Automatic annotation (TrEMBL):
Disordered: region residues: 376-402, 587-627
Name under which the protein is recorded: Probable global transcription activator SNF2L1
InterPro entries the UniProt entry points to: Helicase_C-like, Homeodomain-like_sf, ISWI_HAND-dom, ISWI_HAND-dom_sf, P-loop_NTPase, SANT/Myb, SANT_dom, SLIDE
Alphabetical keyword list: Chromatin regulator, Hydrolase, Nucleus, Phosphoprotein, Repeat
One GO term describing the cellular component: ISWI-type complex
Amino acid sequence: MKDIDILNSAGKMDKMRLLNILMQLRKCCNHPYLFDGAEPGPPYTTDTHLVTNSGKMVALDKLLSKLKEQGSRVLVFSQMTRLLDILEDYCMWRGYEYCRLDGQTPHEEREEAIDTFNAPNSRKFVFMLSTRAGGLGINLATADVVILYDSDWNPQVDLQAMDRAHRIGQKKAVRVFRLITDNTVEERIVERAEIKLRLDSIVIQQGRLIDQQSNKLAKDEMLQMIRHGATHVFASKDSELTDEDITTILERGEKKTAEMNERLQKMGESSLRNFTMDTEMSLYNFEGEDYRGKQKLSMMEWIEPPKRERKANYAVDAYFREALRVSEPKIPKAPRPPKQPNIQDFQFFPPRLFELLEKEILYYRKTIGYKVPRNPDLPNAAQVQKEEQRKIDESAPLSAEEAEEKERLLTQGFTNWNKRDFNQFIKANEKYGRDDIDDIAREVEGKSPEEVIEYSAVFWERCNELQDIERIMAQIERGEARIQRRISIKKALDVKIARYKAPFHQLRIQYGTNKGKNYTEEEDRFLICMLHKMGFDKENVYEELRQCVRNAPQFRFDWFIKSRTAMELQRRCNTLISLIEKENMEIEEKEKAEKKKRGTKTPASQKRKAESATENSGKKDAKKAKT
């Protein structure tokens, strides 16, 4: 009903909105379950509600049961593939064996379904097809009944659908049934399709040309189609479907078809060119100008939206939960004195101020005779009640010195900081870290750097006084962890790139078992080098990296890397960064092990040298003694 305003307006009409209304009305005519949320569930069941909630399904159910008794085989065509899903559920519920073919059906399955349906003594009773996916060359001559569940704007499409059964080899008389919902837009769609066929027979088949512009659907015609039957629908009080015999339904359909054909035969070529069956509407045409659009809004047929009806809630669990709920009287809030200052915890007033305010509140409750109620949720409710009442009874008013002190303390907090400023300060700490006070000051709007520095010092000194300090600290620490992660990634890239003189040509990545099959080593090398060159922590770096990949001459014929999105490049770079960090860690551990090994060897060698020197000096002394 959101687009009903365009139907009752006298101004300009949006053609796309009218087309949208037409499509929604066609879905209403076919089945209400084409709208999301209309089908009851979950859990979704296959039951009689598939039939009883749609007038067309009621007629189709009666028609198929009669055709089944007669031994006929049926082709069912629909414009909407979602309706074929509903028909599939219906056939499974009724036990009808069926085949299905639509635009999503693979070629092999199409051929298999056609061969299965056309096989001798086939048990398939129904073949469901989307009208436009039937295509040329499909032979379903073993079927003798065609049911057009809904009609196409182009009559040739429906004729082609009928031709699926009118094939060489057909031995039975083919019957065609078209399902049309009475007093709806479908009547006008079928009328327009029949007019096109008549116009084809008297104009195109005679070799004459027709203006293509007149073949298009104008806004006024769409509006007339939408408004057709609206009064009957909104005025209808009976929402139940009449249980008529299928023979009665078919007889009434034949009668209406004969009436429409009779009207078509009376029309001339000029009326057919105008695509209208209302011959009296030509009275509004004068000197080549159509005065229908100039009628006042008061002359239009007003479509009144239906009144909303409140439905009873039949949720059993909710009903008993409400019925069995024991209503407990809520404990009234303790009164507070009027005109008390509004103090927030993030404004960091001196603790002495809260003591004075508490004393003032207790004395106010004493003056009004307030009695503390007992809280039954507390284990020692009586003791707590007695203690709170004692504080009130023993309270005294503020002295002159205390009142003066209170006024002085009210000026010592951050009174010019509101909740918005505080949230900006917290988000800035999360974004830049608690130590980057310059960037934090730039993020807090309306505050000078000196004010932010002063507030930051007090915040980190008294942050434990905040009510939700755990959540705030967790938020800031998550941001600082992301900052440290970016620093470690940048360091890893710097170390990796520094190992090569020409990294764009020499860089190698130790893949291990994570090589993958899609990206080549040349592509990975380019991604890492460009990511390091542009800056890993730069904003929108992967969008720029995607443009660099597309502009790189070495990838001008590499469709895979050029077709990657920024998100896919980011995922690949994250994988490569993990490999580089692992490689750097292994190299670092290896270097530490070698240094440790060299450190243990040095003292032993020095000891051996000292021992050999001592031994040589001893030998020299012995030689001198001999001489």
